[in-house]
Specification:
The chain is an alpha/beta fold. It has helices at about 55-65, 80-95, 115-125, 130-135, 140, 160-170, 175-180, 210-220, 260-270, and strands at about 1-10, 15-20, 35-40, 65-70, 105-115, 145-150, 195-200, 225-230. The two termini are about 20 Å apart.
Length: about 270
């Protein structure tokens, strides 16, 4: 197995890190194997990048036969579009190194949790195309082939998570044009890749309407979408097991949602394993 650690310079002078967990090929099995890959954007409200949705998710993906990468993007005081450009750089790095990292460059997906979902959806839809292009990247070349979203912040409208939007935009949070620009559900179109969504009804932090608005936008745009809305569980479940529950927070051990990784793995297999 390869373990890689790359630094990405932020456009505001900050730094992001890309960590890769890469299964090597075996001469005994398939020396030329190219696996699907996932770029993981953990949550943390742009105040931190939580460990709970980083390496444990990567290990889950690796166990499903998916090369896994975690982007620890810049946090506050960095603001939009710093994190989005870091995501574009990470996507380009993965595809540029596809041969060395045994990745199928046409099967590079993203998964985002909470505020990381805003980042994942921004690079997967046409939300950030203009600003990505302005910073020297071709939006179509860094757009992922698949999008997965876990209890994600997706709208800056009625059902927004105020704290995330404030950290992301700062003083621009009152600018309606900017709010429309980062409302990902408004930018779903034919370029949006096949999508996987999961959340719980009882999420008291990020309203489930974020997922429902995005789901409806996918349906209207004809984007293939699979959605799982579970009845119970708080925000930030990660794997919903004791493995990823925050210390002392037994509510984050939620049996009804523990099935999501296997559902995601089946979605990956159906869409990205040749």
């Amino acid at each position: 197995m390869q373990y890689i650690h790359k630094t990405i310079k932020g456009i505001d002078g900050s730094e992001a890190t890309l960590t890769g967990y890469i299964a090597d090929n075996s001469p005994e099995i398939d020396p030329a194997r190219r696996r699907p890959a996932v770029l993981i954007f953990p949550g943390g409200g742009f105040n931190k990048v939580t460990d709970r949705e980083a390496e444990p998710i990567a290990m889950m993906a690796l166990g499903a036969g998916v090369q896994a990468f975690v982007l620890r993007y810049s946090i506050a005081p960095s603001q939009y579009p710093v994190q989005l450009i870091e995501a574009a750089a990470a996507m380009k790095m993965i595809r540029d190194n596809a041969e060395a990292w045994h990745v199928d460059p046409q099967a590079v997906t993203v998964i985002g949790f909470s505020c990381g979902g805003q980042l994942a959806a921004s690079i997967a839809t046409t939300t950030g195309d203009d600003v990505i292009r302005e910073n020297g990247y071709d939006p179509d070349e860094v757009r992922p082939n698949g999008l997965a979203l876990g209890y994600s912040v997706l709208t800056a409208g009625q059902y927004r998570h105020e704290g995330t939007i404030t950290k992301l935009l700062g003083e621009r949070k009152g600018d309606q044009k900017m709010l429309d620009e980062i409302s990902c559900e408004k930018h779903v179109d034919a370029k949006t890749p096949t999508t996987f969504i999961w959340q719980t009804i009882s999420d008291a932090v990020v309203p489930v309407q974020n997922s429902l608005l995005f789901l409806n936008a996918c349906v209207e745009a004809g984007v293939p979408v699979e959605a799982h809305i579970f009845p119970h569980g708080p925000h930030s479940l990660a794997l919903a097991t004791a493995e990823t529950a925050a210390a002392g927070n037994e509510a984050q051990i939620e049996p009804s949602a523990q099935v999501w990784p296997s559902l995601w793995a089946k979605w990956i297999k159906r869409n990205f394993v040749k």
